[in-house]
Amino acid sequence: MLQTENIYYFLLILPIVSFLYSSVGHGGASGYLALMALFSFAIETMKPTALLLNLFVAGISFYYYYKEGFFNSKLFLTFAITSVPFSLIGGRFDIDATLYKKILAILLIFAILKMLNVFGKENGTIKQIKLWQGLLVGGLIGFFSGLIGIGGGIILTPLILLFHWGKMKEAAAVSALFIWVNSASALIGQFSIGVKLEKESFILVAIALVGGILGGYYGSKIINNQKLRYILAFVLVIACAKLMFT
Q1: What is each CA distance from 59 to 161, 195, 246, in whole angstroms?
Q2: Half-sphere exposure of 216 (CA within 13 A, CB side)
Q3: What CA–CA distance (Å, rounded) separates 54 from 196?
Q4: Cα 44 to Cα 37, 177, 189, 198, 208, distances in angstroms
Q5: pLDDT confidence tier of residue 117, bands split at 50, 70 and 90
Q6: In this predicted model, what pLDDT tens digit does every residue of 54-73 receive, in sequence order?
């Protein structure tokens, strides 16, 4: 893996990506997959490596947001009940998910425009999520996250904000743990079909954690909600580009 051409550029960009994603409560799998595709990593190593990086970066991000008191356990459980088993199922499949990724990219574009108030300003009213809504959303995100090798935060966070189920930092905290459990479940699904991690993956983990620690700290303690929205919009643009062109 580390013999890839221009690997040093990859290693320089990796902590920047993890910083951006961790600051908004994400693990960064969509960004890592885009980077690995750009630097011509072997296809069979990309999905499990992205999930592994997700575990560590989302985990450290969750720690910082939880420590600051932004975690809503009830909101998290509403999604996680169905997302975990469906992520395990999705992780067992290795299929071409090109069409799904293109559709998701288009949907994320609308989410970005909404968050930037292109369709009118958000109101601050928080709505109680219905159980059936959480179970349905969690199951769908879980399955497709496991299928393409992401934790699902790029889908869940915009949904929480757009449907007013939580505020920005609350959404970040819930998404971080959501990403962690889905990534763990999908990785177990990968292992169950014989996929193995390369030893070099843990070197990438150590490098990504540098950005992840800084991102989690600044996102939870220093950056305000509005700035986090702009960072999230930027992260989603990266995710859209990855989904559309890789």
Answers
A1: 21, 23, 26
A2: 27
A3: 16
A4: 11, 26, 14, 10, 20
A5: low
A6: 999 999 999 999 999 999 99
